[in-house]
Amino acid sequence: xxxxxxxxxxxxxxxxxxxxxxxxxxxxxxxxxxxxxxxxxxxxxxxxxxxxxxxxxxxxxxxxxxxxxxxxxxxxxxxxxxxxxxxxxxxxxxxxxxxxxxxxxxxxxxxxxxxxxxxxxxxxxxxxxxxxxxxxxxxxxxxxxxxxxxxxxxxxxxxxxxxxxxxxxxxxxxxxxxxxxxxxxxxxxxxxxxxxxxxxxxxxxxxxxxxxxxxxxxxxxxxxxxxxxxxxx
Length: 233
Description:
With 233 residues, the protein is α/β, with parallel strands linked by helices. It contains 8 helices and 12 strands.
C-alpha cells in the first residue's frame, strides 16, 4: 500500500527560497502549498488542514510570532520555523509561542528533511517503540505504563522528578522543549523562572542514562533555549 503524501503549507515571502523549498519537498515526496504572506498562509492552513506548517518569522503583513499564536488557537499539528534570526531570544520566543522546531537560515536540506520526518513521526504516533506507552532508544527502554526505565535490560533507578523530566523529553522525541516549557510541565507554573533546577536534574539524569554524560547521545542541550531527546536521525 502506498503511504499517504504529507501535505505541507510553506509560508515564506522570499520567492527564491520558496521555489527552492517547493522543489526540494516535491522531489522527496511531500505535497507543498506555498504562500507569500501571513494572510494567505493562514487561509491555506485553514483550507488545506496540512500535516505540517513551515513558516518564516519575517513576513510582510504580520509578525511570524503573531501568526503562530493565531494558528495555535486551533491548529494542533507541527509548526517548523525557518528564519534568518539567530538570536537565542528569537528561538525561545517562537518555541514558547507554539512552534515545534526552529531552523536558522542558511540551512542544509538534509537537516530540514530530517526534522520534518521527526515531526511527522511524532504526529502520526508511528515512532518506533512508542506503542503501548513504551519508548525505545538504543539500549534504553522507557515503559510509561509501568513507570520503569531500563538500560541494557537493567533497571535504572530514577527519582520521581528525574523520571518526569525524562518522560517529558522522550515523549516528544526530536522536539526542542524550552526551559520554561520543561519547568512548567515538571515543576509547575510557579517555577518557570528557576532554570537552575533543570541544570541540576539534567546532570544527574545524564549520569544515569548516558554512556558518556559529557558527550550525551540522547539528552541534548539546545544552548540558551532548552533540551531535546534525540531522534533516530
